[in-house]
Amino acid sequence: MQNFIYKGAKTTQISFPLGGIGAGCIGLAGNGRLIDWEIFNRPNKGSVNGFSHFAVRAESRGKVLDARILHGNLAPPYQGELHAPRFQSFGWGPRREYMTGLPHFNEVEFKGEFPFATLTFLDHSFPGAVSLRAFSPLIPLNDRDSSLPAAFFEYAITNSTDEPLDYTVVGVLRNPLPANNLNTVGLHPWGCALHMTSDGVQPGAPSYGDLTLATDAHLSSDTTVSWQQYWFRGVWFDSLEVYWKDLTAGGRFQNRIYPPERAGENNEGLLAVHFSLQPGESKTVRFVITWNFPICENYWKPEQALPEGISPTWKNYYATLWEDSQASAQYALTEWKRLFDETHRFKEALFSSSLPPAVLDAVSANMAILKSPTVLRLEDGTFYGWEGCHPDAGCCEGSCTHVWNYQQTLPFLFPKLERSMREADYRYNLRPDGGMAFRIQLPLGAGLWNFRPCADGQFGGVLKVYRDWKICGDSDWLRRLWPSVKKSLEFAWHPDNIDRWDPEKTGVLWGRQHHTLDMELFGPNSWLTGMYLAALKAGAEMAEYLGDEAAATEYKEIFAKGKKWADTHLFNGEYYIQRIDLHDRRIIEAFAKDDSVLMGGSTLEAYWDEEHQEIKYQIGEGSSIDQVLGQWHASLYGLGEVFDPEQVRKANAAIYKYNFIPVMGEVYNPCRIYALNDEGGLVICAWPPGVTKPTIPAPYSQETMNGFEYAAASHMIMNGLVEEGIVCVEAIRKRYDGERRNPWNEFECGSNYARSMAAYALLNAFSGFQFDMVHHSIGFQPVRLQDGCFRCFWSLDSGWGEFELTPEHASLRLLYGHLIVRTLRVPFISGQILSSVQIGNRTFPFIQTNGEIQLKEDVCIQAGETLVAFFHHLYEKPQ
Fold first, then answer.
1. Other beta carbons less than 10 A from residue 330's beta carbon
2. Tens of pLDDT along 119-136?
3. Which residues contact 438 (CB under 8 A, 6 or more apart)?
4. Which helix (H) or strand (E) holds 14?
5. Which domains does the chain carry?
């Protein structure tokens, strides 16, 4: 991949998601096919929707010169697929729905800059140049438009011959609903729409829905549109046979209509756009595919008993905004220019950032998770997430707090949606004693998940409240949540905490600690104690702001004790460890009566290895990738020190030294295979020579999991280990190069895995992004400059834009929304002082102190405006 362009074999694994947040998506394959139709309220990997596709035709004086499906060659293997229906499976060749048996283009170049994909179709024998720009709206802060259930396609045709030609671009869509298919075509003031419904499903049923294929081409004076409501119905290969005859006959398509009783099911229809081009002339044609499947159900727990008054189904948020797929199509076509412009403005700002290519690739590509079926939006707009996706179902339910802890994309791009996760968590997962379930149940109100709290998820919730408060500056929001947040934090020492995390208020976790590696750690360890310490520090600041002085004082005292103990007793001189005697059976006997552990059985049965006389699933003296995770959170959110800074830097260096494996094919891994052969990556735990490795260590220890790696790599960068961090990121993205794996589907426990959105932290790490909207403060401290210059995208609750630094000025450009600023932190070089602060012709009084620009009053920057701080030097640079 170079300049985000994928060619040849590097296109074979691509599925680029087009859809809305919580609305599902359609995948655009590397060769232009429409795959992974995940629009039916659940994952649907590997699917196609009949013969849905786009095609192009060229004619001269009524004679068809060429007609082709707008696909490139199908990549091998060609033997067929195992476990497909008989006569269509292995030994029968590629599926007919792939349409590789019809004339198509030899090659496709795929440029992927999420949320845009640009495909160039290459074949010298076709009389014209053809390209596609596909996208779906992704506009930070505008969650409504970004949730639109629509895929946008804009085909550009250029007449590269020396004679006038007539061209036709055809869009074909299959009706996936049961009989009777009801396909209709309507000419509207906003577009021509092929609308697909069925009389075989009743409104209110989870399988009820509709689709639309629409174009606005007929609104132009130089284009005409024809259509077929139905393809020819028959048996064997009749439908495709007749379609190809109709396509290559030239001219307008003749409509075909069937009465409902003969329409059957799975019947395609088409829209065709016709136009003429002079030599060298170009034309663009727009299509949208929209869908509406409004009713969701908990298909993964169909037998669950629900409290009285709780319905087993709920409505998709997008279905509360757009009545059906025609309404979505109308909105998409009439608002196309604005939706494109605002999405493109975001893409340009992001891709103009001064980040290494692999870093920019990681940050942008993982935003695609928000458009995948990992994400739902409930009827009131609440955001909900799986961990990832099985091929045909969500994987690991419940907006799992210890997984969603890592991701940083949503809180900055769509902070309102992130806050909805906090509100749901503290409303539906909090127990009376302050313990919290870490998997929220659907439908909301269904009750608590029956498992013990997890330490990292629970303390991460406190940190996320702190972060989200600083992003939005809404102290009333914090005040509403504070009683619940406080209760959850104080669960650490609550007498009913059967895990006995910190009953003596020492600031250190001593008891049994469930965590994201799906088992229990026993005793002090820097990973989970660090999360506890960071939560205490955040809790103290929030309590102090809200006037809860008693809580603030207590949290500060506990934090200070815990930090001192951890820095002294958990750091081995090179990195942080877990303090445990693996042979002391009494440690787990203390919890032997409690059978609430994963994998069944009691704690003693699950964790004691009788043969080796050792406690299982621990880290011990190993180097954990997450050993300073609490400090990562704290540094990203402006909380300051959780551990000793010099020790943290050494720990990051040790993670790179011991956990980074350049060639995974040379090491042992009994776990899941996420990196292999010549691929590299950071493993979850490593045991340097000379230290004791547990016989059966923490689960997943030898795995490379992207989200963990991004967190560690961005933390390295924040601690001055810039090159090391880049090496780690490059190793991850090498694994997702379009040939080995899909660049827009980083997986862990399933596809489209939420934790990979930790990649967004790389942007904030490189820019040294600082934010505190409570006090109207924003800042940037780039980790490296090129000729004194730096540029980056940034986003907060009220607005987003670009920051640019040059030797002459620092500028804060608003591209969307607004931003109130009182303090701007920027790096000053020796001899450089501030001369003025301006927006256009307006000048603002300021004080320059300790790298801060303090404005005398709040300044509101509106979209389209730029706040510029101009520098000058006390002395001239030597010539």
1. 21
2. 999 999 999 999 999 999
3. 398, 400, 401, 402, 429, 449, 451, 453, 454, 457, 458
4. none
5. 5-303+315-339 (2.70.98.40), 357-580+618-766 (1.50.10.10), 768-873 (2.60.40)
